[in-house]
């Protein structure tokens, strides 16, 4: 990914290039950072809309992440159980966007 991408550009690239599992992991990490909680009130339909896939794709990936012990998923709620494993599953686009944000904040005005 480009080091100079905006958040929107990075999201577009991510949704185009990365598998659903990595995109879901990235989005869960972002939601965790924004909510400052390991438990996220998210329905499959909402997640599907956020990463641009069908709800059944979210269901399959969420169940796989749950079987791996990374999340605990129940109707309308996801709990992050293993943060490090979720970070390893993620595509890394969060880090690219955060680095971009830091560069923007460091620029003299």
Strand tally is 3
Unreliable segments of 5+ consecutive residues: none
Number of domains: 1
- What percentage of residues falls in helices of 4 or more residues? 55-70%
Let me know the average pLDDT.
82
The order of strands across the largest sheet is 1-3-2
CATH class: Mainly Alpha
Shape: globular
Explain this structure to me?
By secondary structure, this protein is mainly alpha-helical. The protein has one domain (7-100): Winged helix-like DNA-binding domain superfamily/Winged helix DNA-binding domain (Arc Repressor Mutant, subunit A), CATH 1.10.10. It has helices at 7-17, 20-35, 44-51, 55-67, 83-89, 93-106; strands spanning 39-40, 71-74, 77-80. It has a three-stranded antiparallel beta sheet with strand order 1-3-2. The longest helix is centred in the first third of the chain and has 16 residues, at 20-35. The chain starts with 6 loop residues before the first helix and ends with a helix.
């Amino acid at each position: 990914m480009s080091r100079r991408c905006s958040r929107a550009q990075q999201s577009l690239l991510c949704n185009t290039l990365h598998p659903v599992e990595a995109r879901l992991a990235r989005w869960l990490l972002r939601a965790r950072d924004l909510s400052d909680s390991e438990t996220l009130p998210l329905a499959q339909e909402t997640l599907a809309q956020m990463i641009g896939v069908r709800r059944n794709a979210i269901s399959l990936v969420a169940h796989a992440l749950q079987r791996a012990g990374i999340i605990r998923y129940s109707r309308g709620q996801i709990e992050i159980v293993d943060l490090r494993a979720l970070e390893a599953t993620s595509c890394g686009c969060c880090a690219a966007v955060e680095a971009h944000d830091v560069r923007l904040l460091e620029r003299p005005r």
